[in-house]
Amino acid sequence: xxxxxxxxxxxxxxxxxxxxxxxxxxxxxxxxxxxxxxxxxxxxxxxxxxxxxxxxxxxxxxxxxxxxxxxxxxxxxxxxxxxxxxxxxxxxxxxxxxxxxxxxxxxxxxxxxxxxxxxxxxxxxxxxxxxxxxxxxxxxxxxxxxxxxxxxxxxxxxxxxxxxxxxxxxxxxxxxxxxxxxxxxxxxxxxxxxxxxxxxxxxxxxxxxxxxxxxxxxxxxxxxxxxxxxxxxxxxxxxxxxxxxxxxxxxxxxxxxxxxxxxxxxxxxxxxxxxxxxxxxxxxxxxxxxxxxxxxxxxxxxxxxxxxxxxxxxxxxxxxxxxxxxxxxxxxxxxxxxxxxxxxxxxxxxxxxxxxxxxxxxxxxxxxxxxxxxxxxxxxxxxxxxxxxxxxxxxxxxxxxxxxxxxxxxxxxxxxxxxxxxxxx
Length: 425
Ligand code: UGA
What we know:
By secondary structure, the chain is an alpha/beta fold. The chain folds into 2 domains: 4-209, NAD(P)-binding Rossmann-like Domain (Rossmann fold, 3-Layer(aba) Sandwich); 299-422, NAD(P)-binding Rossmann-like Domain (Rossmann fold), CATH 3.40.50. Helices cover 40% and strands 14% of the residues. It is built from 14 helices and 14 strands. The strands form 2 sheets. An 8-stranded mixed sheet has the order 3-2-1-4-5-6-7-8, sandwiched between helices. A 6-stranded parallel sheet has the order 11-10-9-12-13-14. Helix 13 (358-364) links the parallel strand 10 (349-353) and strand 11. Helix 4 (97-110) packs parallel to helix 5 (129-142) and helix 8 runs parallel beside helix 11 (285-309). The longest helix is centred in the middle third of the chain and has 32 residues, at 202-233. The termini are far apart. The model has no long low-confidence stretch (mean pLDDT 97). Bound molecules: uridine-5'-diphosphate-glucuronic acid. The site of uridine-5'-diphosphate-glucuronic acid has 20 residues, from helix 8.
C-alpha cells in the first residue's frame, strides 16, 4: 500500500528519509524553506554529500518525489513527518523553536482537510516534546477533533555518509505512538523493510534516541580513556579493544580510540541529555565525564606535537582531515576545529587538507590555508596532524617525504606509514 507522505525539513534526515520513502514506493512531498535546496533536489542534485542519495533522487524526482516550499501537500498527506533541526540552545538544552513553528504550520494546513492524519516527529527531541508541544500546537492550530489526528515519535538512527544504507537496512525501527491506531497506520510506511520493529510510548521513543547516542558517545570516551592509559603504559589500545570487543556482550563497534567524537549529533545530544537530567534533579556524573574526556582529547594532539617539535611559533603544521569523520563533507564539531584554533593561538602556520570538507571548514576557520591535495599541505611542514579517518589516507606514503621533518601524529588510526605516532597508541 502506498501512502502519501509529507516530510517537513530538507536537512540530511528529512532529505534522506523523503528519498528512501519514495524508493519504498510512497508518494512523497518534501517541504523545505530554502529555495536553492528545493531547486537542487528537484533537479536530482542532493545539496549534501551522501552515498547513494543522488541515484535515488534521479530515479524518483518528478515521479513520486517532489520538493516544495509550500505546505499545500499536507491536507492530502496521510502521514506528516517532522524532520527539522533541534540545535543546541545557549543553556545546553535542545532549541525547539523549529519544531514549534513546523507544528504550527502543519496544524494550520490541516484545517483544510477532512481525513485522518498521523503527525510524526523524527527530529531528536527531549522526552515529552511530542506529547506536550507538538500535539497541543497541531491540535490548536488545526481546530480538529482529538481523534482526527494521531501522533507518533519515530527516532532516526542514520549515520551521515551511510544514511541511505542505515535507512534501508536498519537495526531496528522504533515507533512510539499516542494510541494504537496512530502507530498501526504509521507502521505501514515501513512495510518493505526487514527489521525488528518495536512499539513504545511517545516518551520512551524520544528517550531511546538520546540513550542510543549517549551510549555510543560513552563507548568512544571510554575507549579514549583506556587509550590514554595504554599510551602511558606503551600498550597498543587497538590490540586491547580487539580482544575486548570480541566479547558478544560488548561488541567490536565504536571502540576506536582517537581524538574524540564530533558531528552534529553526539555532542549536542549528550549535552541535551545532561541538561534534561539536571532539570529533573539528577547529577549525570557519567555523561559529564563523557563530555569532559571528549573536550580534553583534541588537546592531547597539541601536547604530543609540542613534545616533538617544541614551540609552535612560526612552524608550518599540516592538518590532514577536517570532516568530523570520513565519507562526509560535514565539519560541524569536528575535532580538527579545537586543534586548529589552538595551533593558530600558538602562532603556527596551518596548511589544511580534506578530500571533501575544505569548503565547510573554511566557513568555520577562514584564516588558515586550504590545500587542494595532501602534498601541498605537507610540503616543508614541520609536522603533520591527522584528524579524520578517511580510508584514502592509508595510501599516503611518499607525500610525507616532502615534509621538512617527518613528525606525524595521528588522531585517528588510519595511516600505514611507519613513522606515525598515535594519540593513544
Ligand atoms: C550518529 C549516530 O551514529 C547515528 O546512529 C545517529 O542517527 C546520528 O548520530 C544522529 O543522531 O543523527 P553520525 O553523527 O553521523 O551518527 O556519526 P558517527 O558515525 O556515529 O560518528 C560520530 C563521531 O564519533 C565521529 O566524529 C567519529 O569519528 C567518532 N567515532 C566513532 C570515534 O571516535 N570512534 C568510534 O569508534 C566511532
